[in-house]
Amino acid sequence: MNARTAACAALLIAAATACSSDTSNDNGKAPATAAKPTGGATATAVAKPKALAIGAGRHWSDTDLDGSHISATTSVISYTQPAKVDLPDALADFPDPTWAILEVKVCADATSTNVMVAQSPWALGYPDDTRIRTPGVSGAGIPKPEYPVESTAVQPGTCLRGKITFSMAKGTRPDRIIYGPDGRDPVTWTVPKA
Description:
The chain has 194 residues and is mainly β. The protein has one helix at 3-16, and strands at 33-38, 41-46, 57-63, 69-80, 98-108, 115-117, 122-125, 131-133, 152-154, 159-168, 176-179, 187-190. The protein has a single domain, classed as Immunoglobulin-like. The protein contains one helix and twelve strands. A hairpin with a 5-residue loop joins strand 3 and strand 4 (69-80). The termini are far apart.
């Protein structure tokens, strides 16, 4: 791949993860802010958006790097743990792993430019504030339909749905699912108790 092609590919990936201007929570209202005077100065606390439930989506809107409008709704369809996969334990980062399957969906608005998607912005979060990133595996043994490992375009007015496979230490369970593209506020969903 020559330098020009690599630069174009990097630009496309960056466009998919441009800063979000979405300030709404899941009921469409702006997050609450509170100001408290402290010793003559004003401190502003911004309420953290609450985690969404599995099945819920978060709409976002932004300006792409080329100045065009980009917007979509990102949803978590399901989370399954333990999940049966036909993969060797050597592909996991843990000995004797437990596997989980996350099913997600992105729908680009009809007025948007192409929305680039990949597994990389997705992670699982734990109560101790640690995270597991996607392993980026695909092919034989992965539950279908697979969510793309490499950056893939979702055209305006269309959706892309697929499954992402995670491995984790046996006996552990995340408490949240995190969608955190570079430069955009992360969105979280609550993992249901086992």
